[in-house]
Design brief:
The protein has 149 residues and is mostly helical. It has helices spanning 3-17, 21-41, 47-70, 74-88, 97-111, 119-129, 136-148.
């Protein structure tokens, strides 16, 4: 069993003992998604697979939060914000703007990219070498600006 899956299960048990209903609900939602993928694919998921699930769930919550805020539903936006904070607790810390910019420049140099036609190659390397620490949306904007400039 992956270390991250063990960590999620232990965090769920700890939240249950602490009677933290919101945290338990969020962690159960994450565990259910992990279990669903394991059943669908008939295999044990690795930490990288679980990181991908967490990132996907994080993005979904961020999108929902912004939609709720746009609609004036602050109560629902607050629930999404809480779920985002719980999910982020299991992800590696994201690179700050300065670190990300240097990382993108390094990857562009590695790839020998010279223009926008090389964007796919650069993004593939970013995803492979970023180890979950790269916000691909911010990275994409930086790659575009650096390749266009």
């Amino acid at each position: 069993m992956s270390a991250l899956k063990d960590h999620l299960n232990q965090a769920t048990k700890d939240a249950m003992r602490a009677r933290d209903k919101e945290r338990v609900a969020t962690l159960r939602m994450v565990n259910a998604e992990v279990k669903r993928l394991e059943v669908d694919e008939r295999r044990e998921l690795s930490d990288d697979d679980i990181f991908a699930i967490l990132n996907k769930m994080l993005k979904q919550r961020q999108d929902a939060q912004s939609q709720y805020e746009d609609a004036g539903r602050d109560d629902l936006a607050a629930i999404e914000a809480y779920e985002i904070s719980v999910i982020q607790g299991f992800l590696p810390e994201q690179m700050d703007e300065e670190e990300l910019s240097a990382f993108v420049a390094d990857i562009i140099a590695q790839a020998g990219a010279s223009g926008m036609q090389d964007m796919g190659k650069v993004m593939g390397l970013l995803k492979a070498q970023g180890e979950g620490r790269v916000d691909m949306g911010r990275a994409s904007a930086l790659v575009k600006s650096q390749l266009a400039g």
